Amino acid sequence: MMKVVHIIPTFNEKENIAAMIDVLEKIFKKLPEWKNEILVVDDYSPDGTAGVVQDYQKKYNNIHLLSKKKEGLGSALIKGYERAIELGADVVIPNDADFQWDPEDIPKLLAKINEGFDVVVASRHVKGGNVIGWNRFRELNHDISNSLLAWWVAGVKEVHDHAGNFKAIRVKGVLDKVSLDKMKNAGFSFQLHILYELSKVGAKFTEVPAVFKERRYGKSKIGFNRYYIRDVFEYVKNSFIIRFDRSQAFMKYGMVGTIGFLIQTIISKILISFSFFPGIAVAVGAEMAIVSNFLFNNFWTFSQKKIEGNKIFSKFLQFNLVSFGAVIIQGVVVGLATIFFGKNIWFPAMVFAIIFIVIPYSYLIYNSFIWKTK
């Protein structure tokens, strides 16, 4: 039986938390294949939220309470994720206590987990998703953070909805590979950051449509105050940090490609000097560069998704197979160029093929298939 741990951060949610626990218990009576545990992470709510949870703990043995000082949503979720892993979760489902996200959508999230996805995001931005009741301030706040910063600046394009708390995440081989202890998000930038960290370990993403509504009871925590200003600056900062981090991976890829290019050029020139047909010489050089690229990319560029053990040989064969297109491309381009323009054109033709065809083709293949662990 698989264990789901719900992570519910709270601050002054006395009016909502009892109803949320009751609904979760009801939902999981219809999902007997899943074991249901509820972890409430409370920021010492002065309204007595923790007391309500403690009353439920007397009734159920699957209710957990983690009390901490108020530091922000990100801090609460980091501690919640860590505690959920300690509780032996197979899947974690963070959600808010206020019913803005409908817990009745949980079976849809778990169905996608059963299909083999690792991160299933309840999304307002896929067909069937929607938002009800937002004012212009909330709309503008979301558009800037979700579209401008998360999508365009940070470049996190695995999903369309980056800001929601409601999602299902597989633990084994996915969340447990993320260094949560190194994440320092105090506020809502955590939602973007965790998606990025999950993408780095090769998680398989999908989204399911969800409708985001007004909270059932109590007042919204979003407002123009010192916490909001702190969180906005943190979100902007982390968006640029993520972009820089992703750029570093591409720069490493470029350096590896440069080494491969030098290897290919030297081998091709040697073979041509021994009267090999330039198209064949360049193709052989390309194959030697592929071997170099595989080793350097595996142990350096994509080290967080590093292939180890018995999988290295089979992955190298797969790598070689999908990279064979690059060999063919270069062989054909150089071969045709030398036939029509003479033998001395082999080097410019090879450079042209590498820059304009092989580099974008190879990066897409390497990042999407070879070092994608799921």
UniProtKB/TrEMBL annotation:
GO terms for biological process: polysaccharide biosynthetic process. SUPFAM superfamilies: Nucleotide-diphospho-sugar transferases (SSF53448). Keywords: Glycosyltransferase, Membrane, Transferase, Transmembrane, Transmembrane helix. It comes from the Bacteria. The keyword Membrane applies. Residues 7-139 form the Glycosyltransferase 2-like domain. Residues 252-371 form the GtrA/DPMS transmembrane domain. The keyword Transmembrane helix applies. CDD domains: DPM1_like (cd06442). It is found in: Membrane. One of its GO terms (molecular function) is dolichyl-phosphate beta-D-mannosyltransferase activity. GO terms for cellular component: membrane. The chain crosses the membrane at residues 253-274, 280-300, 321-341, 347-366. Its main location: membrane. It is a multi-pass membrane protein. Belongs to the glycosyltransferase 2 family. This is Glycosyltransferase. The lineage of its organism: Bacteria, Candidatus Gottesmaniibacteriota.
